[in-house]
Amino acid sequence: MNSSLIQLLVLAGIAIFLILKLRSVLGTRDGFEKPSVPVEEVRPQVRRDFEVIEGGSDRDITDHVPEGSPAAQALAEMKKVEKSFTVTPFLQGARQAYEMILMGFEKGEMDRIRPFLSDEVEASFAEVIDAREAQGLTVEANFIGLKELSLEDATFDRASGMAEVTVRFVGELTSVVRDRAGQIVEGDPKAVKRQRDVWTFARRMGSDDPNWQLVATGD
To answer: What is the pLDDT of residues 20-31, one digit of tens each?
Structure first.
């Protein structure tokens, strides 16, 4: 065997070794494949996978009412009419209004809460307060805190722009009723009781007056 044949066999062996080594690292390629995409071309596609899809759920609404419900649709319509309206801050305001109005009613301080009541609710509150005063009764109440708050319902009349939001409250307070002599006729100053209310607030969306009024009460 001459030297040329020996060299050819050695080169062939080296070529076979390299082919097997490459296959173990890169795998097998059959047919035509697109060239590899550079890393910098891949990254923008990865970022697009995490973009917020336009028209997706509004968490400010769906955190409080079921998505697609009539209440959710009404809240969405309110937000279209008044861009600054958001549900979560509204409920924070409702929490403060509940304590103020409840304590104003218990203590008979109508002048303080009148701007936040509809005519019907104001008349109802005033009737109860007048009856207490006629009997010589006074109420001593202290607000402890709010245990529960939830948005129960919402409606919107596009023609008039009137919006109504119904909120359920569970508050804790101490309350006693005293007669003219100062004697307790009802309640215990040390006993904390729970007050359950379902209140409906209304407002014309887009108006200059930012205040909501209490238009209905229940439990």
So the answer is: 433 433 343 333
